[in-house]
Amino acid sequence: MDLHLTVSGRHGLATQLYRQLRDAILEGRIRSGDNLPPTRELADRLKVSRNTVTAAYERLTSEGFLSARVGSGTFVRSPIAPAEHRRNALSGTGLRPLPVWDRVTVGPERPARKPAFDFRAGIPDARLFPFAAWRRLVTRELHSAENRKALYQEPSGLLRLRQAIARHVGVARSIQATAEDILITNGTQQALDLIGRVLWEPGAVVAMEDPGYPMARLLFQSQGARVHPVPLDAEGLEVDALPENAAVVYTTPSHQFPLGMPMSLARRMALLSWAERRRAAIIEDDYDSEFRFDDRPLEPLQSLDRGGRVIYVGSFSKTLLPELRVGYLIAPPSIRPALRAAKALTDWHSPLTTQAALARFMEEGLLARHVRRARKEYQSRRDRLVSAIERHLGTWAEPAPSVAGLHLCALFRDERLHADEVARAANAEGIAVYPLSRFSTAPTPPQGLVLGYGSIPVNRIDEGVRRLAVVLAATR
Fold this sequence. Notes:
By secondary structure, this protein is an alpha/beta fold. It is built from 14 helices and 18 strands. The chain has a seven-stranded mixed beta sheet, sandwiched between helices. Strands 14-15-18-17 form a four-stranded antiparallel beta sheet. A hairpin with a 3-residue loop joins strand 2 and strand 3 (73-76). It starts with 12 loop residues before the first helix and ends with a helix.
């Protein structure tokens, strides 16, 4: 019997011994039929209490690895062939994912060190979030939870939150909706996942803007969809370029991601007409429309839709904080039951305490107050960034028109500049930026930088852009 055991420390000695004996059995170092030392003898050898050895033996016996024979001893019962378990399962290569997952990389990119100038796109400023008020509301809901029964909740989401969202989108986006029209999700990404589960089968064609939102493209591909890139012009998505066989169109019409232009009214009406003729669906991702600076937000596709073709997706990730993971979708009546069922099958429902706290946050007017304050701050940063680009980068780049959101694009004038190379050099100098090319699948992607202003203070913008100009001069 190949029995080399050591246990050390003050805690978990029985678990240590259990694992060592189990692995020895699985790897064939202790064979079926071997008689293990008596508990007292092994305890003396390992200098542990007899209770420790007894606990390890009892667990192995209950799991079928050992059998105890009164008066004879404790014997090994190897439940499987040892050769099958010579390798640790965590290092095994027996399973392989579907090929699509080889192309998917996930998780936010985190610089090796905190950048001196953080121009990453899509990140709101956590310093603007009213943490004290949020803490009060969450604490209140946790106290209320003590009196609730431990039951699963409605998959569509907390009624009070759905009612609050219906009021919010009615005022902010002119969308006529009731609580029954709304489904609460864990952010935009889950909303898109649920829509895909309900609307298409593997092989379906999903059209989306290019450049566009990479996480949506990867998600659709992971569900078996064939994603067809559609070009853009000054009016937004080119409807005439949509493929004839597209079942779904994914678009960001209020503030195209990442270029920033809104879809014109004429183009919106053309897209709705196309969807009606083709009996296709439109996913409208309205990811940051609360932060519009120059005029009233444009009418959403959802409010113009008369044929029940548009699924409106909203989120609080940019408005409040990404870590809250609260989003919602507003869907036509024909697919609401299926979406509700898909939500139930996926995770049953979103966390109730967060939903309840957000409902009170909105009911008390705190969301509207926060949006007004944040919009003013982000507009100041946007204006400063545009001015800095024109002053410091004018030779090499120009700011793309942008009247909303937390980012804008600096489009290269100089054909010798390559966005990937510039972004790498900038990041090496502590200037965190995204190349515009990362959002495109085109063979010759547009060249420029996507510059976020959500997480950089206004007084750091000028110096950051000035240093970026030095990088551009060095890389052209």
